[in-house]
Design goal:
There is one protein chain. The chain is an alpha/beta fold and 403 residues long. The protein folds into 2 domains: 6-200 and 380-396, 3-Layer(aba) Sandwich (Rossmann fold), CATH 3.40.50; 219-377, 3-Layer(aba) Sandwich (Rossmann fold), CATH 3.40.50.2000. The protein is 37% helix and 17% strand. A 7-stranded mixed sheet has the order 4-5-2-1-7-8-9, with helices on both faces. It has a 6-stranded parallel sheet with strand order 12-11-10-13-14-15, with helices on both faces.
Length: 403
Amino acid sequence: MANNIKINFIGTVVDSVDLPKFESASVAGNKMQLGIIKGLYSMNKEIEVTSSYPHKMFKVKGKIFIPGKKSFIGRSINIRYVPYINVVFLKQITIFIGYLITLLIWCSKNRGDKALVVYNTLSYVALPVIIAGKIFKCKTFCVVADLPIKGIKKSIVQRIEDRMEIGLINKFNGLIPVTKHIQADFAPNTPFIVVEAGFEDVEEEVAMQQSTNQLRRNKNVVYTGTLNSLSGIELLLEAFSKIRVENAQLHIYGSGDKEEIVNSYVANDERIFFHGKISNEKIVEIQKNADLLVSPRLIDDFTTKYTFPSKVLEYITSGKPVLSNKLPGIPNEYDNLINFARTSDTDEWAKMIENIICDETDFYILKARKARMSVKKNKTWEFQSERIYGFISSFYSNNEGKE
């Protein structure tokens, strides 16, 4: 493994303490970026971060000019935020210029082996990486965590951006996709290493001593996440409405354009509760106290093939049973960690939910405990980042692109 590789991580990341200030920021995306950054820093202190603040586009209220700033992730990782004009079109152009200038300066100042690692292929973030890499002949890598969403109405400009994001995937020296299908379908000749997700193992041991045989007042089924057409929330609601288990309750946390449908079920079923969007810290505690955590996302021919539901890994770390559809983007190694429904039929889901929350043998809770121990060994960000760093280092040896 090569040593002393200087790394610049390029993305749209903020320190976790600042995340609540930015409504448009992706919680899951920010977690993944921070996990990789901190993990790489634990292996190699020669890492800096280039980012832009995830502000909403200026319309009537808000800031027009977002100034650049030097700051830190934690207390020790340097991060430079590029300035930009927060107005449509000008935002993308000025962010592109900000990234490009910052990376050109960084590359010119840093001698020896260096690598540029970008999060996703958003054109005005990824293109500066590719350009700077070619000018200074340094290796470029892309963490491909999200691809453009299909099936929704988009403008011509948005459709052009979507094509650019797909087209840029094969322009890097190496890929770090969340599923193997991304490399196979869009960059089959590019070396890669799959990193579907990770978690920061700083939490205390969860209280899992209570047996499922022990009487509890309620059987709590919990869903946390976005409420949109991709989430499968309607499948969950309809399935739960068919359950006749005494004291079963469905608790839903999140926000999205399916809130009206959720509220209609809440109005007609006193066992269903909608709590809206709450902090991630509270969500983690709620997950630990659930009887069953559900991820009803439906299978489609694009999104679920090229994404990994990071919520599923977060569920597993709670040590509680998880029920999900078997999505194409979920690796087979999760077959022993998750309870997969055989179909997306509401009757099948209702039956599975009943089986798990009414289990008197402790089969599902014991399976959940084993699953938690498994991911604690090989899915922490420290472990995943060691793999990433090994992959990057391989490009500076005679065994290029081999993990």
